[in-house]
Amino acid sequence: MDGCGLMRARYVIWELHKRCRIHLCGGEYETLVLDAPYFRERIEMLETKKVWYGDRGVLKVLDARVVGA
Predict the structure, then answer these.
(1) What is the spatial distance between Cα 68 and Cα 63, in angstroms, rounded to a whole number?
(2) Helix or strand run (H / E) with residue 43
(3) What are the counts of helices (DSSP H) followed by strands (DSSP E) for the chain?
């Protein structure tokens, strides 16, 4: 990719950031599996809190329990 292509890509990513809140430094999305067919027990989230740091955030699990099958 040449310099013009890189500048165009940077512009497109910046526009997505402004419009869709996509973070420029990443884009990964972490997951937490709470239940699955191969789990003997499942996790139940009892209390959570959304925490935002500008244009990125996390979901903090404040309380959870393991529930039997």
Answers:
(1) 17
(2) strand 41-53
(3) 1, 2
End-to-end CA distance of the chain: 53
The predicted model scores a pTM of 0.53
DSSP state of 25: T
Would you give per-residue pLDDT tens digits along the chain (69 residues)?
Answer: 566 777 787 788 778 777 776 666 655 667 778 898 989 899 999 999 999 888 778 889 999 999 986
Q: Where are the beta strands (DSSP E) in the chain?
A: 41-53, 56-68
Q: Where are the domains of the chain?
A: 1-27, 31-69
Spell out the residues 6+ positions from residue 34 whose beta carbon is closer than 8 angstroms to its own.
Answer: 42, 43, 44, 45
